[in-house]
Amino acid sequence: TSGHSGVTSVSASVLGVSEGDPTAVVVVSTSNDIARVQVQFVGGATDQMTPVRGWAVVAGRVPSADQTGTHLGVLTAYDSMGTQVARGPVPLGFGCSSSPGIRVSGHHGSG
What we know:
Elements lengths: L6 E9 L7 E8 L5 E6 L4 E4 L5 E7 L3 H4 L2 E8 L5 E8 L1 E4 L15
Antiparallel strand pairs: 1-2, 1-8, 2-5, 3-4, 3-6, 6-7
């Protein structure tokens, strides 16, 4: 394991808006020492996944875009001991982080 740990990138989008069932999909790239990622979505839904080859995809129902805005929830990453090693907001769009904490501030997509 390298000396670097945490979440290296996050990409988030909302699907199902025109069908009246908005669902956030979050793709997370992690370092090898991350054993689980979890997102608590705006509106209360929660999903978690053990990364596979450094990738995890989680999804959850969210309120309509006018209620959610550009913030879809909070992502938390845990190591194999269950210790929280990274936590931060999930913005709509794409963001990168090179630090153990999640600092995603990518552009915000339209629609």
